[in-house]
Amino acid sequence: MTIRVLIADDHAIVRTGLSQLLGTADDIELVGAAGDGAEAATMAAELRPDVVLMDLSMPGTDGISATERIVSASPEVHVLVLTSFSDQARILDALQAGAEGYLLKHSEPEVILAGIREIVSGGSPLDPKAARVLLTNRRSPGPETKLTDREQEVLDMVGAGLPNKTIARRLGISERTVKAHLTNVYQRLGVTDRTQAALWAQRQRRGDRDN
Length: 211
Fold this sequence. Notes:
Layout lengths: L2 E6 L3 H11 L5 E7 L2 H11 L3 E4 L8 H11 L4 E6 L4 H10 L3 E4 L4 H12 L7 H9 L12 H11 L4 H8 L3 H15 L4 H17 L1
Parallel strand pairs: 1-2, 1-3, 3-4, 4-5
Helix pairs in contact: 2-3, 3-4, 7-9, 7-10, 8-9
């Protein structure tokens, strides 16, 4: 399968460099490049790429707002943040907006290409700095981070060891929607992957039984 990618970055030199990098991969095709968030959202709706490489700091509509618009209009599109910022607020805001991965621009080229492949395979590529922020932010969900009913259903099934395809079939939703719910669950729980979420769910069930 050829992975169709849209670049969103306000710096022409970055867009050029990323275009050249994508051109080295036989399984990745560049379908467009946007210079700001609004253009990225419009192009994503028109081109329906598999992945949007999203910068966060852009004039006008920033990357977080653009991510929200893209995920809302085209939930099948995967947003992979590629930015220079590794502060907690931006990482959490981007994942809450619907981004499924977070990499930094100083990443090795191979890491960026691997992240693109990983995100379309259901993974959540995270730069180590982003992963540490999420781990530091881990906490039990309080009133402001309470899971929705559907997110709780998905989490319970993940805790039971069910794959995304089975979860989607049982809930009558698409696999991409399951992945979107899982991304929100990871952010709300402060975990970074499916295994940690499953362990959290299992601990909760044991706690409920003990009580």
